[in-house]
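Reviewer 2 asked us to include a model.

Predict the structure of this chain.
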Amino acid sequence: MKRTLLIMILLCSLISGLKAQEHMLTGIVKDKATQEPLIGATVVNKGTSNGTVTDTAGKFQLSVAPNTVLVVSFIGMESQEVNVGSAKELT
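Predicted model (structure tokens):
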């Protein structure tokens, strides 16, 4: 029983440590040609279901780990992959 409890505590600590590495990323998605913000563009961590949609100003917020690759897509446009690196803000 003590051993199981110790293992559970260690696992929780490990998971908390991994989660602590994530940071809040903010950004704006714009049309390259017109520089107009894209309303309703999808921003997703590549290979996951962690994502969001841009607001009426093209802005988004998403919790990401360092060096995450984001997939940005919008209907009628080609999807783009963006490497976050250690950035806290992207356009």
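Residues 2-20 form the longest helix (19 residues). The chain is about 20% helix and 35% strand. We have added this to the supplementary material.
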